[in-house]
Amino acid sequence: MSAEVGESAPDFALPSSRGPVALKSLLAKGPVLLVFYPGDDTPVCTKQLCDYRDNLAVFEKLGVQVVALNPQSEASHQKFAEKHRLPFPVAADGGGNVTKAYGARGLFGMTKRALVLVGRDGKVVWRKVDFPLFYETTDDVRGALERLRL
Prior knowledge:
CATH architecture: 3-Layer(aba) Sandwich
Structural class: alpha/beta
CATH superfamily: Glutaredoxin
Radius of gyration: 14 Å
Number of domains: 1
CATH topology: Glutaredoxin
Helix content: 25-40%
Order of helices and strands: EEHEHHEHEHEEH
Strand content: 15-25%
Number of helices: 6
Shape: globular
Low-confidence stretches: none
């Protein structure tokens, strides 16, 4: 089971590299792009999150907040976020419950590379799951989000 487009997004509160993050609180400020990724400091994940870091203004212009997450520890995320100067929260989904609820849990418990946009109304607006070696660039995401006319 996973939260599909049009369904209510599962609420969560998790520790992150920027302090506690709660979906409900974030949604009060606007839509949230949840970025599920397999691992801290892995080549493709690092490239993806650094692309989003370098182009954060694109997301801000669209009014979208970015939150990256996977089941790795808060300490691992803190080190990863500091090393790469990630300006958005990197949340620690310790038990993997949020990852599972959003359909981002793959074989053997590994996190899939997935993007889930949650609208201000708390419903899933868009989702994209990629093969682990590929990711949606900022331009790819911008195109998809612009077509949604947030």
